[in-house]
């Protein structure tokens, strides 16, 4: 088992005391991100606690709270006297996480096969509303990707995503029936770091109900995400409509003063 000398280069900058999220939640999100991007690999030992505290400018109490939660989540394992390790194989059956991971990564973590039915993959000029969301000029070419997402051939969600085409010009040639959107972005040198999301319950409309195999009016959960990179540059916006009975979000709540 190998031990990295440090986390990713931008790890220190990722922990922001001025953010509303508690520091231990930020540490959890950071380590999940390092694992998702391959900086930390299964079986790898994390740097010593003292070194991590110095890198991230946090206390040992804050660090241990985050690491203990990651152990509970099945992301890390602890070995007494030896340190903290990335779990060899994430435990199946966990709920969808509160960390930023792709649908494909979630499926792999759950031990399920992910696939998509591509409904639309095209480039169109940004409307006024779309331009405002992404911080671009109206008329800027946006890549529109609309898919039905499936786990083991069961339709779970309808995903509509938009991003400036210039960020990843190669997306138009990717077969998204099997390819991961996040992996395609990574191949283009684009790495999502954080996403602000809202989730609300709705009644399914005709098109969504048909795609998800629901009766019209059945409950769905609509999640809207706006993703940015580490420099806070807007990357993409997504509207993901989940079949209400097939999706569960796990999150953390912390009391702050």
What would you note in describing this structure?
The protein has 257 residues and is of the alpha+beta class. 26% of the residues lie in helices and 28% in strands. The protein has eight helices and eight strands. The strands form two sheets. A six-stranded antiparallel sheet has the order 3-4-5-8-7-6. Strand 7 (219-228) and strand 8 (234-243) form a beta hairpin. The protein is globular and about 55 Å long. The relative contact order is 0.12. Mean pLDDT is 85; it is low at 1-5 and 90-94. Residues 21-89 form the HTH gntR-type domain. This is GntR family transcriptional regulator. Keywords: DNA-binding, Transcription, Transcription regulation.
SSE topology:
Layout: H1 11-14, H2 23-36, H3 49-56, H4 60-72, E1 76-79, E2 83-86, H5 103-110, E3 114-125, H6 128-134, E4 141-151, E5 154-164, H7 181-187, E6 194-203, H8 206-212, E7 219-228, E8 234-243
Antiparallel strand pairs: 1-2, 3-4, 4-5, 5-8, 6-7, 7-8
Helix pairs in contact: 2-4
Outline of this structure?
Keywords: DNA-binding, Transcription, Transcription regulation. The chain has 257 residues and is α+β, with helices and mostly antiparallel strands.
List keywords for this structure.
transcription; alpha+beta; disordered N terminus; globular; UTRA; two-stranded antiparallel sheet; 26% helix; 257 residues
Classification by helices and strands? alpha+beta
Helical content stands at: 25-40%
Rg is: 19 Å
Shape: globular
């Amino acid at each position: 088992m190998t031990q990295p000398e440090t986390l990713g280069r931008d790890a220190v900058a990722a922990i922001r005391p001025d953010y509303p999220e508690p520091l231990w939640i930020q540490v959890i999100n950071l380590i999940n991100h390092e694992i998702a991007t391959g900086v930390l690999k299964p079986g790898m030992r994390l740097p010593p606690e003292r070194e991590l505290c110095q890198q991230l400018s946090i206390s040992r109490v804050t660090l241990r709270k985050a690491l203990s939660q990651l152990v509970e989540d099945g992301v890390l394992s602890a070995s007494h006297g030896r340190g903290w390790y990335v779990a060899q194989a994430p435990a199946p059956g966990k709920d969808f996480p509160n960390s930023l991971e792709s649908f494909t990564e979630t499926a792999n973590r759950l031990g399920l096969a992910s696939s998509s039915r591509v409904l639309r993959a095209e480039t169109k000029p940004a409307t006024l509303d779309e331009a405002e969301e992404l911080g671009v000029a109206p008329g800027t070419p946006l890549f529109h990707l609309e898919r039905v997402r499936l786990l083991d051939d069961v339709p779970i969600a309808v995903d509509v995503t938009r991003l400036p085409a210039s960020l990843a010009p190669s997306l138009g040639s990717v077969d998204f029936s099997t390819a991961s959107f996040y992996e395609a972005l990574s191949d283009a040198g684009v790495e999502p770091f954080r996403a602000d999301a809202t989730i609300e319950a709705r009644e399914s409309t005709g098109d969504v109900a048909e795609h998800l195999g629901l009766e019209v009016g059945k409950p769905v959960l609509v999640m809207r995400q706006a993703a940015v990179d580490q420099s806070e540059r807007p990357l993409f916006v997504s509207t993901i409509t989940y079949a209400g009975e097939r999706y569960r979000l796990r999150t953390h709540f912390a009391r702050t003063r």
